[in-house]
Amino acid sequence: MSSSIAAFTGVLIFILLFTMDKPVDFPGTALKSILKQRGFKVSWSRVPKGMPTAFGRRHFHLILLSMGSSKIHYDDHVVSLDGVYLYFASSRVPYATEILSENHSGYSCVFTEEFIKPIERLESMKQSPLLKAGTTPAFKLDEQQQSRLAAIFDTMIGSDLSDYIYKDDLMRNYIQQIVHEALQMRPEEHFVQFNNAALRITTQFMEMLERQFPIENPNTPLSFKSAMDFASQLSIHVNYLNRAVKQITGKPTTTITGERITAEAITLLRYTDWSIADIAYALGFEYSNYFSNFLKKATGHNPKFYRVG
């Protein structure tokens, strides 16, 4: 590790120092300022064993090259990372990080949605663990993979120290490299090719669906909820939409929208103080009992089950 890279060890990017008695907010003031000004930061750092960070959604994406033992509390799952892992944390899913080993180390790249706007529509980015719902966010690395990715991160850090005026574009290229490394680790069946029309329609549908989340205002209900809503907006017949989505995903349109609304409902119930009526309204339900029946059918539990405390 060069001296210039080592100078970044004091900059805590992929997790802040922990207190002994309560979770620490992430990001801290310094990182918030950097993200507000530029929308990007890359570093290498060591982090001591400690309590988990506060659980919640962040307004940025995070890519980790994690070396050691840790746990990621990710949405409704716990991912144990023991060894060397490449991990992707999306701004769209709540998470917390818990360091289990002493002197845990790793590289991190933190960036906002706005920072990757120029590349987020590329097919590789759409399929990446950052933006594609339901993908595995953690990849265990062998020695060769670790070496390649560490080299990318080292190059990123060195380039970011330079005065090159187009280095933000360069950083986006490095992010794409890391994404491609991850995509190559996934099974081949994830890359089955479909006819362009069905894929285009399904991609447009998924983008429209995902753009409605996360919900941050209880007074603004979902604009599109039913298959007919999406079909009308796309100016196609609802049967055409349903056939395309089923062909590409293997699931009906209503199942995909229902699963996404269910995931958002659980997040809002757990991590906001909004009333159940407000959450129901924000998710497009006219009455609270409609929302309760929907959630009960989808999960087996009523809304109060997911309330914390």
UniProtKB/TrEMBL annotation:
GO MF entries: DNA-binding transcription factor activity; sequence-specific DNA binding
Pfam families the UniProt entry points to: HTH_18
PROSITE patterns named in the record: HTH_ARAC_FAMILY_2 (PS01124)
Domain HTH araC/xylS-type residue range list: 203-309
Keywords: DNA-binding, Transcription, Transcription regulation
Domain of life: Bacteria
Name of the protein in its database record: AraC-type DNA-binding protein
Organism: Dyadobacter psychrophilus
